[in-house]
Design goal:
The complex is a heterodimer of chains A (210) and B (327). With 210 residues, chain A is mainly α. Helix content of chain A is 71%, strand content 1%. Classes of the chains: A mainly alpha (210), B mainly alpha (327). Chains A and B meet through strand 1, helix 4, helix 6, helix 7 and helix 8 of A and strand 1, helix 2, helix 5, helix 11 and helix 12 of B. Strand 1 of chain A pairs antiparallel with strand 1 of chain B, so a sheet runs across the interface.
Chain lengths: 210, 327
């Protein structure tokens, strides 16, 4: 069946599925076994960072659905804003602990440099997302942060396109584009971690180099 | 450099594997983090100090508002002499040939005197013959005459008296300025300037560039910010009103503003307080790039091997009872 084989070889769908099966089979994506040395609490910082991000997104979806004025005038709204606020604080605490943990484990070894680099990009975009969130609060903090921050943005030439005094632009970035970016990169980060598995202890395979 | 091999199975060959429940771990993480966040939200709430309006400013500190408006006409406020992206008056920040502030031109044009003073007064002058006459006198006067009035009025304002919300200064030759400013103050106190600057000729709008720049030119909002420890020299970018943690993740960025050369008027190598924003953005970009490239930077990538924190993290591996091989 030469015709059939040729068709299969040229099928992008089939090749994509085979590639996924080869590089990320389900037992890697949802593993039920891990190396015996994966026992430290340091490993928890990654999963609690994801958990905090989920709470950030859930509370943020509620806030954005109800509109930016809601939480200033409603007790329930204020609670959801507070939930969003503290979820963000926890997200950053866990993410920084995860980052330091991975640094001292030299988690980029054995072909994992891209995973580390994407993690740093997620950290940077998260800071930008939180910053636009503070600018979108519609309160005194937002006012003064905007007035203060415009000089840094303008001095670096960024302010010509990223106007921190423009609430609409900051709000749109905060609730839409930046969260989408974080979510895509976090999914990519997790897939890369699950594809390669956790790194071995430092002297198990030589030095700390990548 | 060791590669991980073609598959996980090859990478972990010979390593003892133990049972692990990823889904249970994730669910418990969701529950645990959720409980902490809900409790923190319920107990500590979140900061929400109401925004300052131009009306509040005009009511609480009328002399500051009139002084700021006068300075807008004189072209001596921050926004009037800012440079790009608002106007071409100031040179903007640069470091040698690196001058990104001037690279993109006037992208958000603001004429402070017209936008914050003259245009609001023109709108408020409908049916107000005294104000119409004052504006006419102002606009027909020569530039030299306007400057003389502004100089005299600016010198008189520090000794201004406030009575019933109105600002009065000692007698002098100020031309139409007292009439213009008393009208602007009255409109501002009633909330009219907030509306005029915010709507800016539109019905739907979400851009607060003009009212924020005007308030930023005054001393009232800056004074409130200093009281709340929010200014740049007070680690302000990572602070927040009340006893809340704020953007603590900006600590490194904020720190540079507190140290040499970015807190110095003279500085070093052309970096000083005058171009601190540009210098610090460049520095943080370099540092962030270095963090991303740690896997490839000697010394930085070797520190984890030298500092034995990893021996605590992988106690099972480095401990006396090693059971590394799959049984």
């Amino acid at each position: 069946m030469a015709v059939s084989n040729s068709t299969e070889e040229s099928s992008w769908t089939l090749r994509l599925r085979q590639g996924i099966d080869r590089h990320l089979p389900m037992d890697h994506l949802l593993p039920d076994r891990q190396p015996y040395y994966v026992g430290s609490w340091v490993y928890v910082f990654g999963v609690v960072t994801i958990a905090a991000l989920v709470w950030v997104i859930v509370s943020g979806v509620v806030l954005s659905f109800m509109g930016p004025q809601w939480w200033h005038d409603s007790g329930v709204g204020r609670f959801f804003n507070s939930l969003h606020f503290w979820s963000v604080q926890l997200f950053f605490i866990f993410m920084v602990l995860h980052l330091w943990g991975q640094y001292f484990m030299a988690g980029w070894r054995h072909g994992r440099a891209a995973t580390w680099m994407i993690g740093v990009v997620i950290f940077g975009i998260s800071i930008l997302t939180a910053f636009t969130g503070y600018l979108s609060q519609q309160n005194f903090d937002a006012q003064f942060i905007a007035i203060n921050a415009k000089d840094a943005m303008n001095g670096a030439g960024i302010g010509a396109f990223f106007n921190v005094l423009n609430f609409g632009q900051m709000y749109g970035l905060h609730v839409m584009l930046l969260p989408i970016g974080i979510t895509i990169l976090v999914v990519a980060h997790i897939v890369m971690v699950r594809t390669r598995g956790v790194v071995k202890p430092i002297d198990a395979e030589g030095g700390a180099r990548s | 450099m060791k590669s991980m091999g073609a598959t996980q199975e090859e990478y972990y060959r010979g390593v003892r594997m133990v049972p692990y429940d990823l889904v249970k771990e994730l669910v418990w993480a969701m529950v645990g983090v959720g409980v902490i966040a809900v409790l923190a939200a319920a107990v500590f709430s979140s900061p929400d100090v109401p925004p300052v309006t131009i009306a509040t400013w005009a009511q609480q500190d009328p002399v500051d508002l009139v002084t700021t408006a006068t300075n807008e006409l004189a072209g001596s406020t921050t926004s009037a002499g800012y440079g790009h992206p608002y106007n071409s008056v100031g040179p903007g920040q640069s470091w040698g040939p690196i001058a990104p502030q001037s690279w993109f031109g006037v992208r958000i044009p603001i004429d402070s005197a017209n936008a914050f003073v003259i245009q609001p007064l023109q709108k408020a002058s409908v049916g107000n013959s005294d104000l119409t006459s004052a504006l006419d006198t102002w606009q027909k006067a020569s530039s030299d005459q306007q400057t003389k009035w502004l100089d005299a009025y600016t010198k008189a304002l520090p000794d201004a008296k406030v009575s019933d919300g109105k600002v009065t200064v000692a007698s002098g030759d100020y031309g139409p300025l007292p009439a213009m400013m008393s009208n602007l103050l009255a409109v501002a106190q009633a909330g009219g300037v907030d509306g005029l600057l915010a709507t800016n000729g539109r019905f739907y709008q979400t851009d607060y560039t003009q009212p924020l720049l005007f308030m930023g030119d005054g001393g009232y909002l800056a004074g409130l910010a200093a009281d709340a420890h929010l200014t740049g020299s007070q680690w302000g970018m990572m602070n927040e009103t009340g006893l809340y943690p704020g953007q603590t993740w900006l600590w490194l960025y904020t720190m540079w503003y507190q140290v040499f050369p970015f807190n110095s008027t003279t500085g070093i190598l052309g970096l000083n307080a005058g171009n601190a924003d540009l210098g610090i953005i460049i520095l943080m970009t370099v540092l962030t790039g270095a963090l991303a490239l740690v896997p490839f930077i000697p010394i930085l990538r070797d520190i984890p091997r030298w500092i034995p924190i990893h021996r605590l993290i992988w106690r099972q591996y480095y401990g006396p009872h090693k059971a590394r091989v799959q049984t």
